[in-house]
Amino acid sequence: MMQTGSQDSVETGNADYIRMLNSGVVLSTIHSHEPISRAAIAKHTGLSRSTCSLIADDLLQRNLIREIGKDKSSGGRRGVLLTMNYDAGVTVGARLLADSVDCAVVSLRGDVLKHRSTAISYHADVDTYINVLCRAVSETIEEYHAVSPGMPVFGIGLGLSGLVDSASGESVASSILQWDHIPLASRAQEQLKLPVYIDNDVNTFALGELWFGHGRGVDSFLCVTVGEGIGLGVVINGAIYSGSHHGAGEFGHTRISDDPQAPRDALGIQGSVEAFSADPAVCAYLEQQIRQGASSLLEAQSGEISIDQAAEAARRGDALALEAFNRAGKYLGIGIANLISLFDPEMIILGGEGCAVRDLWQPAMEETVREQAAYGLHRRVRWKSVEFDDDLWVRGIASLVLKEVFEGRAQVRD
């Protein structure tokens, strides 16, 4: 019989894994309930007081937490209070877009400390894109270190569209970047000499909301993003749900119409939510209607119509532009009503670039949800909208590294 490993190595591996998990549980508990004593940590986590004390001592040695004084007396010995050391280091988040890289240095509190955007040619080849990305990350760190010299960096988070295998660090498929099976994390890590973590950008947006935004303290919620595409981040029991094959959240590509004349989305799927409701879909509908003779203030536009031009026309009372946004809101509402019936979420958070014009599509979306959500479940959903802000995206992406920190896996690098 072939022997694949000794019992001792298995037991050691299991013990190390359990210690790592327990360390993450303790650090997350401190983050959620600070200031907190070792005894209170044991009560919250169910771990023994001796285990909590050993882990706390290790976290103190690693400079991830601080002691800040004594707990109130309850008749016995007063415990020492622990809190996060938010000055232990920083993280970096970078969002990979078709025409730019948005990059930021982010504190452990989630504050964006330095933010810059670097332009890149549409559909640049992979080597060029990764070189520009790494240069943008390095220069952002250098600019931050110019004012805060010596601050350690925990790692780099990268967020991008499409299917992403966060465990292997691979961009499996991205229609926007036109990538297919790119080992992004390892290639970036080779150049940057820092740990690199990657995920779908809408998942990272949801992660940022979970750690710092509307989703903090919420058990299960959905983040729906509107813009160049339609995205979905799913949080279940306080964790991002990515699916068995990294495809959970491809809500924009779900089909909601079998009309043979329905438009197609970026993947060529006909009648999908994205094909009706994404920003390019609104503009394409306007261009098509004008070509067919419809009257509009936008007739005089040369070239392709932008979403900003469409919004301006709608706000000036242009009937065709108003129709285009109402149409987008209606089909988005159909899709969201389906999400409510499937997930019964506690909260839905609307975000993305398209929220800059949500006043034009949200009324139709809400009306459709009211009409189509099963059992009136929409009445129990809490709705939040996030104004578009690049900082929110990169903060969420940097949270990929924070997740490693709070789960006890990340190590400080100078």
Describe the structure.
The protein is α/β, with parallel strands linked by helices. The protein has 3 domains: 7-84, Winged helix-like DNA-binding domain superfamily/Winged helix DNA-binding domain (Arc Repressor Mutant, subunit A), CATH 1.10.10; 90-211 and 392-406, Nucleotidyltransferase, domain 5, CATH 3.30.420; 217-385, Nucleotidyltransferase, domain 5, CATH 3.30.420.40. The chain is built from 12 helices and 16 strands. A 5-stranded mixed beta sheet has the order 6-5-4-7-11. The longest helix has 27 residues, at 7-33. It starts with 6 loop residues before the first helix and ends in an 8-residue tail after the last helix.
Topology of this structure?
Blueprint: H1 7-33, E1 36-37, H2 38-45, H3 49-61, E2 65-70, E3 80-84, E4 90-96, E5 100-107, E6 112-119, H4 126-147, E7 153-160, E8 163-165, E9 170-174, E10 179-182, H5 184-192, E11 196-200, H6 201-212, E12 221-226, E13 230-236, E14 239-240, H7 273-277, H8 279-291, H9 307-315, H10 319-343, E15 347-351, H11 358-372, E16 382-385, H12 390-406
Parallel strand pairs: 4-7, 7-11, 12-15, 15-16
Antiparallel strand pairs: 1-3, 2-3, 4-5, 5-6, 8-9, 9-10, 12-13, 13-14
Helix pairs in contact: 1-3, 2-3, 4-5, 6-12, 8-10, 9-10, 10-11
Feature tags:
Nucleotidyltransferase, domain 5, disordered N terminus, 3 domains, Arc Repressor Mutant, subunit A, 16 strands, five-stranded mixed sheet, alpha/beta, 414 residues
Low-pLDDT segments: 1-13
CATH-assigned homologous superfamily of the largest domain: ATPase, nucleotide binding domain
CATH class of the largest domain: Alpha Beta
Structural class: alpha/beta
How do the strands of the widest beta sheet line up side by side? 6-5-4-7-11
* CATH architectural designation of the largest domain: 2-Layer Sandwich
Number of strands: 16
N-to-C span: 47 Å
Order of helices and strands: HEHHEEEEEHEEEEHEHEEEHHHHEHEH
| C-alpha-based Rg, rounded | 24 Å
- Please give the domain count: 3
**Percent range of helical residues:** 40-55%
Q: Mind summarizing the main beta sheet?
A: 5 strands, mixed
**What amount of the residues lies in strands?**
15-25%
What overall form do the CA principal axes indicate?
globular
Mean pLDDT: 89
CATH fold descriptor of the largest domain: Nucleotidyltransferase, domain 5
Number of helices: 12
